[in-house]
Design a protein that fits this description.
By secondary structure, this protein is of the alpha/beta class. It contains 4 helices and 5 strands; from the N terminus they run βαβαββαβα.
């Protein structure tokens, strides 16, 4: 049992349109500088343990990275902290781009 669920790019796009999700990019700074999913907050994976309190709540929490591996680690970590409603973007930002969805410059 992982404690989190996988979400596909199309499902995430719908949730973001409804503003019903907290989206976290766990990629490194140089990767995030190439573009982020609109509405995402950037918290590199290595800093996640320091930001746990900021991610508490009932709103669904979705992590993504380049391909879905590091974000799966982030999702499992948050699940170990007894946080509910956690998702991993299946295929990461690669799947997002392949689905034809936009990226924004990092702010």
């Amino acid at each position: 049992m992982t404690g989190y669920m996988e979400i596909e790019a199309v499902e995430l796009h719908q949730l973001l349109a409804e503003k019903k999700v907290l989206l976290v990019d766990v990629r490194n700074d140089d990767e995030a500088a190439r573009g982020m999913i609109p509405g995402a907050t950037h918290i590199p994976l290595h800093l996640l343990p320091l930001k746990v309190e900021e991610l508490n709540g009932e709103q669904p929490l979705v992590f993504y990275c380049h391909s879905g591996m590091r974000s799966a680690q982030a999702a499992a970590f948050m699940a170990s902290k007894f946080r509910g409603h956690i998702y991993n973007l299946q295929g990461g930002i690669l799947a997002w781009g392949k689905a034809g969805f936009p990226l924004n410059p990092k702010k």
